[in-house]
Amino acid sequence: MRRWSILLLPVLAEPALGQEQAEPDPAAMTKLEAVVPPQDWYPDGYYDLRLAAEAEIAERAQTVSAAAADPARINLRTCAPPDLGIDGIDPALRGQAGIAIETARVRAALVGAQFPSFVYEMPLAKFERDRLAGQISKSAAYTEMVSQLNFGLRPPTPTLPFVTADDDCPPPSPPPPESAGPTPKPRKPVAAAAKPRKATPPKTAPAAAPSPRPSGILFATDPPAGEVLLINSFAFKVCVRKLPDPWDRFACRWNEVQTGYARPMAGRFVYQVRWPDGVTRRGTREIGAGPNGAATVIFRKTGS
Question: Cβ contacts of residue 198 below 8 Å, gap of 6+?
């Protein structure tokens, strides 16, 4: 089996601070096998990524925003597709993970727009296969899929929206130009003879202002001394598919998070917290900073 690793990385979706959810249900991905069956042209190990992506997209309820804005038109390309932490996976699998997430997102958008499966299954499968083969560009794959969705097996009914794949996102802002530095001030001429200076009493330093709270997420446990382990939600689902025990901290490469220190972090994470008396709590949590860029997330042994 190919080695792979998972790290703790942020995602782009805007999280609700400290929102807690139930422990992940591995059976949910097993049910998805009937909805997204394996294909004989899938590369080895890709099906696990695809099912993990399907489960994550379903939980996040991601949709294409253009569909809600204009019921008669749906743009399958988005300016901010969900970044589910694929950079935390083995580099050899990152490309395939990105394709799996993109395919799952497009399928969810088409299902949400009431497209029948007999209309979208073949165009979407060809899109996925072409993207995995890498023989045509991403834009060309989108163009071909859109053409098939609009003019292929589409039923003669006006209820389905017109499909586009417009890459109309604004380009990223260019980096600021490098500054050549401030213009040096002209030097004053040196005096012929320096006059003696009068001694002045030392100035009293002003009272130091209170140090601002460090930005980022501060983790704590109640009671203290709990060991906090986190992993990206999508990465955990990949572990569910690939490992006999996804809660094994070493096999799945969970990240131990030290309490009492702020760190920048945002996204959807699965957690397991262990206290010295053996009590363990598990679940999923949306984590993100508050308006001032800082927040505290407390994992409690009892309650919520």
Answer: none
Say if CB 32 and CB 55 are below 8 A apart.
yes
On whether the CB atoms of residues 303 and 230 are closer than 8 A, the answer is: no
What does the alpha-carbon distance between residue 49 and residue 57 come to, in Å, rounded to a whole number?
Answer: 12
Q: Within a domain: residue 276? A: yes
Give the residue from 101, 134, 164 where a domain finishes.
164
- In angstroms, the CA 41 to CA 217 distance is 43
For residues 96 and 247, what is the distance between their CA atoms, to the nearest angstrom? 24
What is the pLDDT averaged over residues 13-40?
A: 74
Give burial (CB, 10 Å; 0-12/13-18/19+) of 34: exposed
pTM of the model: 0.75
Report pLDDT for 195. 55
- pLDDT tens per residue, range 228-263: 999 989 999 999 999 999 999 999 989 999 999 888
Q: Return the pLDDT at 167.
A: 78
31 shares a domain with 137: yes
Asked if residue 226 is part of any domain, the answer here is: yes
* Mean pLDDT to the nearest integer, 28-33: 89
Provide the domain limits for residue 294: 216-300
Residue 226 CA to residue 275 CA, distance in Å, equals 4
**233: part of which helix (H) or strand (E)?**
helix 233-242
Q: What is the pLDDT of residue 277?
A: 96
Q: Are 144 and 128 in contact (CB under 8 A)?
A: no
